[in-house]
Queue: 4 jobs
Job 1
Amino acid sequence: MFSCRKKHKYNVYIRGAEVLTRRATPIDKITPEISAFATELIESMRLFDGVGLAAPQAGVSKRIVALGVPNKDLATPGVAPGNTLLLPLMPMVIINPEIISFSNEVDVCDEGCLSVPEIYAPVQRSLAIAMRAQLLSGEHIECHCNGLLARCIQHELDHLNGILFVDRLVPEELDKIASKLRVLEKYGRKVDFKKTISV
């Protein structure tokens, strides 16, 4: 006897989608619906092979972010306490995250984004941050992070404020990818500005 199971669709919205330009709203209470969405957000991040995914990228304008940063950073000398706290919990979600301070020291590294697929460009970010957020368990945390984790958090919190990494590029770097962005926009119009994986 055969059994049929309806496939579940996971969407990531791409540049051109209106939801990516809005400031997301805070989450007042961790409800069963929020917990279920958190699980779906983590699964979307895994399926699309990302190290982070903000709720607006999944079409939901709420302040929740999935993180899946590799924990190899734990072996790096000078690793921040927040990395030691959070990396073993990956994949995880953070709720209503807020960066409360940025280091003066910065670096420039190539970034990519699931909402700007197959396009990479150098972005300047602070090397370290202090962040506060709530975990899905309800626990409130405040910690210092550095390395890839700090960069990923800055990138994902930009999404919560309607900012894509390409919005932070200096003009000459933006010019270098302008033709690729035009191709992406043309593609986006054909697919309602979203990519879908069905499982």
Job 2
Amino acid sequence: MELISFLIDFILHVDKHLETFVLTYGAWVYALLFLIIFVETGVVVMPFLPGDSLLFVVGAMCGVGLMDYQLSVALLFVAAVAGNQSNYAIGRYIGPKVFQWEHSRLFNRKAFDQAHAFYEKYGGITIVAARFMPFLRTFAPFVAGVAQMTRSKFSFYDVTGGALWVGGIVTAGYFFGSVPWVKANLDKIIWAMILLPGLFVLWGALKTRRKAPAVAGRN
């Protein structure tokens, strides 16, 4: 319970914890940040670790001189790309074993073929867009591996999405993190970065479910 409480507090007050870590341990913060981003994107069971909010706070700290901007972007970009590659590799290893269950309703050859076709057609935009959505960011590369998405295609969009995600959010924090209004409302901004993408995905899922019966009725 204490670990869970600490993780929740770390996620919601990542700015304070990160600043304390920098002032106490100095350059070791780069190793910590690399580990967090790598695990958050590379281990399918760790989607709850901070991502967007962490990158924004890193940018803000770079803006006030507590961290190096270029080093932070480069290091976290590598962590994000390597994390996705790890997640993809895990999914690619597990996929063939799972889809051998021919009598399963969910995991059978037909389901695999459908998932593979989807990721071959829409996998690129899925991998890039998922970078900006908590939870989906962790699961999308894993499912791409399970669906055996072409590795070269996955890698291209992994690098593209990683560059946009890390570069975009760290840069936003760099330029806007020190603005008085942003500093005064950072806790609310962190909540928004956690909740709004999730609500958007939920709205999309509900909209899709409502359309499905209508389509079935017309058929």
Job 3
Amino acid sequence: MVLATRDRAFILAAICTIGSVMGAMLGWIIGAMLLQHVAMPIVHFYHAEHSLAALQDKFRQYGVTIILLKGLTPIPFKIVTIAAGASHFAILPFLAASLVTRGARFFLVATLLWFYGEPIRDFIERRLTLIMAGFLFLVIAGILAVTFL
């Protein structure tokens, strides 16, 4: 869509971000209130029962950090949102972290397409995960540097 209307790149990224955060909120609600009836069939569809249990334990320890890190990886974000709800992680920090991580992803793509247009599309489609992993590495390195230096 950005390639068709490059002047609206950032509006489209904002719409995608808002939609993704609304979906994250729905996932949180499913995990918190409808775990057995709705969430478990979704988790089973992705063969992620073990991942859900592990994420629930990790949410109790690391909370927002998990959302920020997992939102940039190829792991389906649905699993993260359901686990956050199932862990009864506080909704406002969850939504704030979802906004940051999903916004970073959509605005990065929009920015690249806005600046470079069609020539960058193939690169994004093939290597977005690599870009996000590199960005994630930089974030972790920055956190570690601030923490230990």
Job 4
Amino acid sequence: MLNMAVLLSGSGRTLDNFHQRIGEGSLAADIKVVISNVGSALGLAKAERYGYPAFHCRDNRAINQTLASYDVDIVCLAGYLKLYVPPPALARAVINIHPALIPSFCGPGYYGHHVHEAVKKRGCTVSGCTVHFADGLYDNGPIILQQCVELGYDDDVDTIAAKVFAVECQAFPEAINRVDRLGIDYFWQRVGGER
């Protein structure tokens, strides 16, 4: 079981998903702390309601000072909308989810509805999500899991977003379970050619 910190910037829908799956025993993790860069984020209020320590930290330095007080194996970016730079001890232990199939529609400026708008504009018939380790660049680092969803020709941006979020709710917990099972190093070695 992995000890997890959750970083978020908004409503905490992914936190809801984690909390539910931990409760039903389908996510091999324990949430130790929830941190947001937005003081008014609904996700912080949810974290408090769930009984998790919850903090507003404006920048990487403040986040890392807070994390130093907790025993954390991984940091999950759950709708965290800033570039996070972890302390050296967690440099390879930050997991992000991106609402597209990397390497498509990713990088600076591609987040949230911006991604789905680009997918719609391009006329894609599939989209999905990518769970990956973060390496200091936007939407980069070893991929843990990708999940695909079929899009209809007439799907609007909100429909695309809803379809992708539905698969995110499956993919993110499954990716964490795979990291628990296989270990963090496995994924970094898998793409680096090290065995």
